Each structure stands twice: as C-alpha cells, then as structure tokens.
Amino acid sequence: MLGICRGRRKFLAASLTLLFVPAFTWIYLFSGSFEDGKAVSLSPIESQPHSPHYTASNQRERESLEIRMREVEEENRALRKQLSLAQSRSPTHHRGNHSKTYSMEEGTGDSESLRAGIVAGNSSECGQQPAVEKCETIHVAIVCAGYNASRDVVTLVKSVLFHRRNPLHFHLIADAIAKQILATLFQTWMVPAVRIDFYDADELKSEVSWIPNKHYSGIYGLMKLVLTKTLPSNLERVIVLDTDITFATDIAELWAVFHKFKGQQVLGLVENQSDWYLGNLWKNHRPWPALGRGYNTGVILLLLDKLRKMKWEQMWRLTAERELMSMLSTSLADQDIFNAVIKQNPFLVYQLPCFWNVQLSDHTRSEQCYRDVSDLKVIHWNSPKKLRVKNKHVEFFRNLYLTFLEYDGNLLRRELFGCPSEADVNSENLQKQLSELDEDDLCYEFRRERFTVHRTHLYFLHYEYEPASDNTDVTLVAQLSMDRLQMLEAICKHWEGPISLALYLSDAEAQQFLRYAQGSEVLMSRRNVGYHIVYKEGQFYPVNLLRNVAMKHISTPYMFLSDIDFLPMYGLYEYLRYHVWTKGHAPTNFAKWRTATTPYQVEWEADFEPYVVVRRDCPEYDRRFVGFGWNKVAHIMELDAQEYEFIVLPNAYMIHMPHAPSFDITKFRSNKQYRICLKTLKEEFQQDMSRRYGFAALKYLTAENNS
C-alpha cells in the first residue's frame, strides 16, 4: 500500500369523430353551469309549483337557456367546419377527442373553458384553445429540497421535455443540497432552449417558519406561498408544480389556459379529488376551511403581477394567522392556507379541468377525470405511498411514470428549430473543440470522447458525513459500472469510512441500482457513501472522467484512490488515518514490504500503477485515456512529475477480487486499431508532459523505450 502526500414512446392515441360533437354539447348543458355559477337542471322544471314568482323566474331561465343553446349551435357549426377542414388536410391520421363527461365540480372556471377542455382532449391541434406563440418561453416554478426530491424533479422534467415544443425557464426554489445536485445535472445535460435559475430556499425559511406544519413536506411545503416575493418582479405568470407530477401532454396547453382568466381570477387550480376538506374521513376529522371539496395545489397557475397588486402576501398571512388560532397547525402545508384564502375570496380562482391534476391519493375521485389515455394530461402522485397507492388503474399510471423514470435523458437534447437560443458558453466551447477534430482520423472516436459532456447526477442517494476534526480523515474513491455492482456490499463491510463512488449507468440501470441499494441492509445502513451517477453516452468507458467525478466530491482532506475490484483489508480505514503525510508513492518492493515494519520510500518506474493515498488537491486523471490502458499509469506519472514522493505502508494491503474481463479489455485484445490508438495517445501524453515539465519529463520517454 502506498501513501502519497502533497435526451420512448408517445402516449397520445385518440380518434376524431364528428358524431360526438352534439353529444358533448348536451352533456355540457346538463352538467355544466353558466356565467353566474348556478347549475341548471332541466328535468325538475315540470314539477315546480305554478306560482307567479316561479313562472317569471322559470321564464327567465328558459330564455337564458334558449339563448345559450343558439350560441352553442353556432359554435358547433363553426367547429364542424374546422374539423372538416382538418380532416381534408390529414385524411389518413387524426388525433382528437374521446367522449367524456365532466361535472362543474371537476371542470373549469366557466362554461367556455369547460367546452374547450372537452373538445380538446389530449391534443390542442383540433381545439380552439388560445395559441401559444411558437417561441414563447414557458415559466415553471418548483420547490425542491433534499436528495429524494432532486430525483423526483428529474422525472418531472423529463416528462415535460418529452412533450414540449417551446423554450422553458425553470425557477427552482432549492436548498443547498438540491442546488448542488440539480445545478450539476442541468449544466451537464445541456438541453437546448432550457434556462435554469435557482432561489435559495433556506433564505425563505423565516418567511414561513412561524407556521406549524404536520405535512411530510415540512417547511419546504409552505414556500409556494411566497413565490410573489421570491420570483423576479418582472415575471408576470408562472406554472407551479409539485415534484411528484408527471406530464402526459405538452405543457404549452396548460400555459395557454392563462388566456382564459377573467376579471380578478389569479389562481388556476384543480378541485381536490378526495373528501378531505368535506371533513368526513374519520370521526372528529376537522380540516381547514375550503370552498366545497377545496383545491389541490400540486398544479397552480399564478398570475404574479395581479397577485402582487392585490397584496397577496398580506392576504395569505392574515388568513393563516386567523385560522391558526383555532387549527393550531396545517395538515396539508400550503394547500390549507390557499384554500382558506379562496374560501373568503372565491373570485380569485379559475377552476381548471380535473385532467390537469389527476390525483392518485387514497380515497380519490380521480377516475371521473378520464375514460381513456387521451384524457390524461397531468398525473399527480400526491399520496405518501407514491407508486404503492391503491387505485383501480395504478398499473397503467405506474408504467407511464416508469417510462419517463427510465427514459434516456440524452434523447431530450433536442433543438427547437426556428427558436433562437440564448448563448451558452459551455456549449459554444464544446462545439469549437469538436470542430477542430479531424473526423477522418482513425482515432477520432477516442479523441472525441475526451470532450464528451456526460450528464451527471451527484448524490443519487442520501449522503451525510462530517469529516473528523483532526484533519487525518480519508475517503475511499472508486468507479464502477453495472457489472461490478455486487462488489459494493463487501467493500462497505471492509471500509467503514466515507466512500465516493462514480457509477457509469444508463437511466434504466440507475433505477435498477436504486432498487438494489434500497433493498440492501448493508448499503442502507451507510449514510457516508456518495453515489454519483454518470450517465452512459458514447462507445467507451470513461474511466478517468469517473475517477475525477468521484475525487471532486469528497469532504475529507485525504483520499484513497482505489478500484472497485480491490477489497481493502479489515481496519485499513483506521490504519490510513494515522499514516498520512504531505508527500508520497511508487513501484512497491514486495520483498522488502513483507519484512518491513516502518514506511519506506520507493522511486517511480515505468508502467507502475499503485493504489495511493493522496491529498484531495492532487492532479486529476487525464481524460484522453478511456476504456482499457494507461489510465492509472498516466496519473502516477503526473504525480511523479510534480515531485510527489512515494511511501510504502508496511501493514496495509488490498485483495483483488476475481471477475470476468471487462468489455474494454476484450476490445483491446481483439481490435488492432484500438491498440494503435492507445499507443498514439500515450505518445501524445508524453509530448504534453515534456512541454509542461521540460527536461525532467525526459525520463518517462526513456523508461518507456526501455520497457
């Protein structure tokens, strides 16, 4: 042992049938409501007493109904004409609506909106919804805190990106953990026409910490209340989403609903689909005040400019203070306070059709929101049970969610043609570097890999570790792919100290790893292991990139650079904590090591690649070396060139665990061009060493020629 010191499938399937249009109209007339918000019931008219007051009232209702029917018929004629034109343009394929019934309890804010929702189905192509400009930016706000929520956000964003046709601007209210994870993820994802801004959730705690909250979301579940203060003052409107949302349609359709707001409507919400706010779920159940069933805040349309003018901050604070005097705490976080405000000010709400927030909670009435796949627009896993919630169609919803969960995020790096993108320095530099490569070079793929930006998700699982205060703590650093996953438990049993691992996985494999880890008592008992997912891209295993990712995210002053197939001896962690220096490491003299009782120094030799303990500020691995060959050798050479001293520890060792040859070793052995390119890269590396270190680097070239 040496110590060194110094962006799958579409889900929208529908058929368009003109015969359904009149049926929709009558469904609407029987179950809808008019502008005054009062339901019209046709059948009871005949049984009412014949009083003068009733006759006059009845006559007014009949006249209103006749006028409305004429308006509907005019709209139907226009719609038939539009659909006929659409059919003539696309005779072989149609996307449209299926028949479905909505009551106003689950419908939109007014009759016009309900009709649009019914006609539109899951596609806006055949409806009369207000169009969203081709390159109009859609703003989305999400509150995200912690490791688990960061994973959930990725799935939500994937579902949005899969369907989107517009530029997106995500406003993420995140704690320090989520910001570190998501900032790295989006920086390495490099999705065109997507902008990310972060807002410090920890700075907002004082705004809502005075509100006792029993909900599992904790203090972060209250932060949607302060978005008018948090988001930029020039931002007029925003869609606010919970992290447990999955989109099944283009988010632009939801953005278009803002155009339907009238008067003082500033909040777009879907009715709550459980009986929670009715107060009849159990004996002595006492929910916060709400209008009818209340509203669910998993999906919110906020007109920020109008809310600010209405003094929203003062409005919700006064309401919360008043209700907390009797309720003592919130049960559903911000949702309770939103509903209490709406109870007092119902004019604030534009009621969205329930398919914009199909709530899969216990005792849900969500089945009334859909009859077919084409009816679904947004799925909300708003039960603490998440995918384990009881629902008649839970298998279908689960499969829809899992599709995005395991979808290759690299496939979502799609350009939005015709929409100018903001200049991205990283993207421009990457394109410049790639343009300088010669595509006719037989080693082009090797050279290109050096510049490939791999999407990276840091701290995929919960991580919690504070280094020892004596500045001797050391982290084991390693990298692996799916075929070495079984070695994790053994390493965790042998090394009780902190570990930083970079895993090279596809999106689907990342979920397999998550299930494996969550099912392992050994892995779940450890909070000091940082798992960093580097997503697969390209044909080579980027071994040195993986090492650099794992090295970069340690919190101890020292790191033990190892490989996943080497098992540390028991007690090695504690041994290394007391045997670290400011310099050290080279070719081990094993004869001397077997009898040594004290550390001893050795000199560098060609092709030597020991496992070393170094300070965290040591040089990174050279990314030009991918797959098999020279990846560790080059790093040790770099350390020697920087005058690191190599010290052998006499009472420390590791055991190599047998495993099948890797795919890259097989390619190296069977592919002559692979070996030629590796030799070329070695020579170029040595030339770079000579340029950096001058005369001192000549010994590496000499040693290589003599070996």
Query: Helix fraction?
Result: 25-40%
> What's the alpha carbon Rg, rounded to whole Å?
31 Å
Number of strands: 21
Spatial sequence of strands, sheet with the most strands: 12-15-14-13-16-19-1-20-18
Family: In the C-terminal section; belongs to the glycosyltransferase 49 family.
GO molecular function: glucuronosyltransferase activity; xylosyltransferase activity
Region (Disordered): 80-109
Protein name: LARGE xylosyl- and glucuronyltransferase 1
Task: Lay out the secondary structure.
Blueprint: E1 2-5, H1 20-31, H2 52-89, H3 111-120, E2 138-144, H4 146-163, E3 168-174, H5 176-189, E4 194-200, H6 201-208, H7 227-230, E5 237-241, E6 245-247, H8 251-256, E7 267-271, E8 295-303, H9 304-309, H10 312-327, H11 334-344, E9 349-352, E10 358-359, E11 378-380, H12 394-405, H13 425-435, H14 444-449, E12 456-457, E13 474-481, H15 488-494, E14 499-505, H16 507-518, H17 521-524, E15 529-535, H18 543-552, E16 558-561, E17 566-568, H19 572-577, H20 590-595, E18 600-602, E19 612-615, H21 631-641, E20 645-648, E21 654-656, H22 663-670, H23 672-693, H24 698-706
Parallel strand pairs: 1-19, 2-3, 2-5, 3-4, 7-9, 10-11, 13-14, 13-16, 14-15
Antiparallel strand pairs: 1-20, 5-8, 6-11, 7-8, 12-15, 16-19, 17-21, 18-20
Helix pairs in contact: 1-2, 1-3, 4-5, 10-11
Region (Disordered): 80-109
Subcellular location: Golgi apparatus membrane
Keywords: Glycoprotein, Golgi apparatus, Membrane, Multifunctional enzyme, Signal-anchor, Transmembrane, Transmembrane helix
